[in-house]
Amino acid sequence: MKMPSKKRLALVAGGVAAAGAAGTLVAGVTLGLFSATETSGANSFTAGTVSVGDGTPVSVTCTQSGMVPGQSSSGAPSGTKADSPCTFNVKYTGSASAYLAVDVAIGNSTTKLYDGTATGLQYYLKDGSSTSYVSGTSYTQQGGGSAALPTAGASNLLVSRTPASTSTAVSFTLDDAFPVAAGNAYQGGSSTVTLTFHAVQSGSNPLPADCAAGQQCNASGSFAWS
Fold first, then answer.
1. Are 196 and 105 in contact (CB under 8 A)?
2. Per-residue pLDDT, 216
3. pLDDT tens readout for residues 167-179
4. pTM for the structure as a whole
5. Domains of the chain in sequence order
6. Rounded mean pLDDT of 137-166?
């Protein structure tokens, strides 16, 4: 995760008060100017921080192997629903308000369990507010259009349009289902899903109007993730 660049802030403060003394010049008499200098007290500027962690991982991985057709976890829409899903808890620890996003990276062994088809492994990613990020083999692109989830995954899935404040916590659940229609081609396969959470300051960094929670929100216009 890249940290936002910090702008250097500097303050030069000082007050000079001067009072002039006017008088009649008389031989042998010297008049001086009354003067005073006042310096302000120390002034301190502290840049805000943007970070994810505080005892919770920034990247977490869920591994699926040894599955048989019809097997699924409890939150899947079909199958046995007998397995436990992978759950992840993330806390935002920065001091500056920030937008949060999650990257979903999918890995496979030589024999792919997840291949983006109706017979391969299906993934379902939701957060605690029931916002859906991945559904089976699809996800939602920026602007609201549904698209096939690439075998490599998808990045910059926005958690919320409302900026996170310090100690904002978000829980995620990753369910899976291996269709009954899966054939022998998947025997011996395995798949991993790695979720990477990242944040960027919300101040002076407006979200595009077509970005929504659970959908992809890429850097564009005046908005950037780093």
1. yes
2. 98
3. 998 989 999 999 9
4. 0.78
5. 59-201 (2.60.120)
6. 97
